Amino acid sequence: MIKNIILDLAGVVLNLNLERDTQALHDVGLPDYKDCLQCPEIIIPMSAYLSGLLPIEDFLERIRPFCKQEATDDEILWSMDAVLDDIPQSRLARIAELRKKYRVYLLSNIYEAAWNHTLQQMGKHGYVPNDCFDQLFLSYEIKLAKPNPLIFHHLFQETGLNPEETVYFDDTEENVRIGSELGLQTCFVPMNKLEDCLDQWKL
Hints:
Elements: E1 4-7, H1 18-27, H2 33-36, H3 40-50, H4 56-63, H5 73-81, H6 89-98, E2 103-108, H7 112-124, H8 129-132, E3 135-138, H9 139-142, H10 149-159, E4 166-170, H11 173-181, E5 185-188, H12 194-200
Parallel strand pairs: 1-2, 1-4, 2-3, 4-5
Helix pairs in contact: 1-5, 3-4
């Protein structure tokens, strides 16, 4: 029996725009995100920054050698933000409805600027986080990030939920795998397709 829902943010609640992101990365001299994943010198500081675990100044210092010499700090930071897109009003309404039947939690690897963007997108439709989520677990605030199991254990401890009564939606296969190993019911979400997955689970 499902009593709790855990939602990832980017690619699940918040839509992502990979085409715009790829162009922005190329504009500053970086490869697209998939190729960044193949380069530890790029993806390690990038992932740490995007999870809010690496200060802006340190991120820029570590990423700049891989960027065009003429790329400005603002352009490099925009290349990180460009992927962030909208949240459909219908999705927020559906999550708010789910909260009437289930406890709903947000578990996200996110940095402060991306969270501010999320708040703006919710506000456009007249929503605030409390309308949709019982509690927020944001990596930049708690200084833990998926797929580290500790962030899941932190959520379990703070909420007291039973993993077996909980379904976890995420668009990253590694995060889904860790969640499953920790006893959660899990669902891999194709990017920007949360509604299809909720339908599959009859939620």
